UniProtKB/TrEMBL annotation:
GO terms for molecular function: L-seryl-tRNA(Sec) selenium transferase activity. It is found in: Cytoplasm. InterPro entries: PyrdxlP-dep_Trfase, PyrdxlP-dep_Trfase_major, SelA-like, SelA_trans. It is an enzyme of class 2 (transferase). Its main location: cytoplasm. It comes from Aquisalibacillus elongatus. This is L-seryl-tRNA(Sec) selenium transferase.
């Protein structure tokens, strides 16, 4: 072991190795960066030698191994951490995979704005300073019926800002059945605590009545808050107070009524028989003072939080110090504007990938599946591929009770497990993310775009070769 350790070349010798030098020249790397990777690899190799996990016949073999591992370490460091994937899970708004995909027009607009100076805060008609708050406000007002609106960097920020601005050091009344956790252990109650608002819980987990609010209102009450339970569904012996009832109660006691809608649906999916989620328009028309919702869920746009409602309250939010802390950058505004246009010009089921994939029919999906199966079956393959009827989900903490009928392809291999197939597909370029059901790898084509079918075919061919080795 000690003899092997003494054969490890010094760092300066490895830096001058032809393979290392060639890689540095081709990728224009400075020696300090490469040196750090070599040192890290050497430390790992020393440990493996001491634990007798690896051994080498001679110094040249050891040196070549170190060089190869060093180049591999640098390559892994250079590869992007955020990269495109093929989403074959069937979950349309997959939080781990970035939730909503942007409309093509939004992607082009983001690139255009990123490459050029822009009118982010400049009124080109008047030649004076403008406000970023005005960039998409007219779209929101027109589409929702709200008097005014402001955009912040996500919906948790929306909740934080509203509570901080209007309920700091005062009580906000919320039903216990609506104290949701929105994901990643972020809870509405925790956000309220951080904002300085005092949480006043009423009712029980499954039942809250109007009189619960009435009895809780006092001189310290600043707001009646409703949190739409968009990420779970409660059945059975339940009772909730409607937003219309809260609006009436708020007017009687001159209290603000605010609803955190969460997922934020502009397009009525119930017309397709999908779910029972209220639209933003429904909430605004109820007379509520403020409503907030996400941009990257059912809206199908970038990660933002939108606060819409009565102008007198939105004006206060625009002047609040948090408006600068939580403001949105030019790229998000560019993407959001183009996303709103897909609704404004009535092209949402065609141009908005989120809505398009949610309302995609079984027949459309089946046609895509059959085309792939026909192409694969015409070639020799050791894979066992079969068309399957499946159930997809919307995801992203939205429409938890909804299952979407779908089609896909199951993959099996006579020698290798589903977990092995799942892993191999995940390690391809681009990675293909699948799910496993009943010891079979499932490709759900609801979330595989037609233009991705060619990549799926290539991956299946590559999978056949890899598993036959």
């Amino acid at each position: 072991m000690n003899q092997m350790l003494r054969k490890i070349p010094p760092v300066h010798e490895l830096l001058n190795h032809p393979s290392i030098q060639s890689y540095m020249d081709n990728h224009q790397l400075i020696s300090d960066v490469v040196k750090e990777h070599i040192q890290s690899v050497l430390e790992s190799i020393r440990q493996e030698i001491q634990l007798q996990k690896i051994s080498f016949q001679n110094r040249d073999e050891l040196t070549n191994y170190i060089v190869n591992q060093s180049v591999l370490s640098i390559q892994q460091f250079q590869s992007p951490n955020i990269r495109p994937v093929i989403n074959a899970t069937g979950t349309v708004l997959h939080t781990n995979l970035g939730r909503a995909r942007l409309p093509e027009s939004a992607v082009k607009k983001v690139l255009e704005v990123a490459e050029n100076y822009s009118t982010l805060e400049y009124d080109h008609e008047k030649g004076t300073r403008g406000s970023r708050h005005d960039l998409v406000e007219d779209y929101i007002k027109e589409l929702t019926g709200a008097e005014s609106a402001i955009v912040v960097n996500n919906n948790a920020a929306s909740v934080y800002m509203v509570l901080s601005a209007f309920a700091k050091s005062k009580e906000t009344i919320v039903s216990r059945g609506e104290l949701v956790e929105i994901g990643g252990s972020f809870r509405v109650s925790s956000i309220m605590e951080e904002s300085g608002a005092i949480l006043k819980e009423i009712g029980t987990t499954n039942k809250t009545h109007p009189y619960d609010y009435e009895q809780a209102i006092n001189d310290q009450t600043a707001m009646l808050m409703k949190v739409h339970t968009s990420n779970f569904h409660m059945l059975g012996f339940t009772k909730q107070v409607s937003r219309e009832e809260l609006v009436t109660l708020g007017k009687e006691h001159q209290l603000m009524v605010y609803e955190d809608l969460g997922s934020g649906m502009l397009y009525d999916l119930t017309s397709w028989g999908i779910g029972s989620e209220p639209t933003i328009q429904d909430v605004i028309s109820s007379g509520i003072d403020l409503v907030s919702f996400s941009g990257d869920k059912l809206l199908g746009g970038p990660q933002v939080g939108v606060i819409a409602g009565k102008k007198k309250y939105i004006d206060q939010l625009k002047k609040h110090q948090l408006a600068r802390v939580l403001r949105v950058d030019k790229l998000s505004y560019a993407a959001l504007e183009e996303t709103f246009k897909t609704y404004f010009y009535n092209r949402v089921t065609v141009d908005n990938p989120t809505i398009r994939d949610i309302v995609k029919t079984k027949e459309e999906i089946l046609q895509q599946v059959n085309e792939v199966l026909h192409t694969i079956n015409s070639n020799e393959s050791s894979l066992v591929l079969k068309g399957e009827e499946l159930l997809s989900q919307v995801g992203g903490g939205t429409l938890p009770e909804v299952q979407l009928e779908s089609y896909g392809i199951s993959i099996m291999h006579h020698k290798h497990s589903a977990e092995k197939i799942h892993k191999v597909l995940r390690q391809m370029n681009p990675p293909m993310i699948t799910r496993i059901e009943h010891e079979k790898v499932i490709l759900d084509f609801r979330t595989i775009s037609p233009h991705d079918s060619k990549v799926v075919l290539q991956h299946l061919e590559e999978l056949t070769k890899t598993l036959s080795m």
